[in-house]
Specification:
115 residues, 81% helix
Length: 115
């Protein structure tokens, strides 16, 4: 049984594990951000900026961003392989998804780290 070159992991089990791990990271990040917002009513721009100047928050945000990309890629790959039977259409869809996610990742890194 061959592995598709457009698959994120090496097998369905690896994709499943990546999807579950990324979901946990995203859930923890959501709890963190919502908790911070609840704990800081009337949040000012200066306080928000100060939060994201903290290296640990930047790393956590980067981890959440990478988790979003991995989670989305596996989901879109699954949808495309399940519902798009024409190879050319499926490949085009996957490349559009990849390019969009890559652009968002680069943009996100630039926003987080101010590169």
């Amino acid at each position: 049984m061959g592995v598709s070159i457009t698959n994120f992991g090496r097998s369905g089990l690896h994709d499943w594990l990546i999807q579950r791990f990324s979901a946990i990271v995203l859930a923890l990040y959501t709890v963190f951000i919502v908790g911070y917002l609840i704990g800081h009513p009337g949040l000012s721009y200066a306080e928000w900026k100060e939060l994201f100047e903290c290296t640990s928050v930047r790393i956590f945000t980067l981890l959440a961003l990478i988790s979003t990309m991995a989670h989305a890629w596996i989901g879109m790959w699954t949808i495309s392989t399940d519902y798009m039977k024409a190879t050319g259409v499926r490949f085009a869809f996957q490349m559009i998804c990849f390019l969009a996610m890559f652009a968002y990742l680069v943009w996100g890194i630039e926003l987080i780290w101010g590169v």
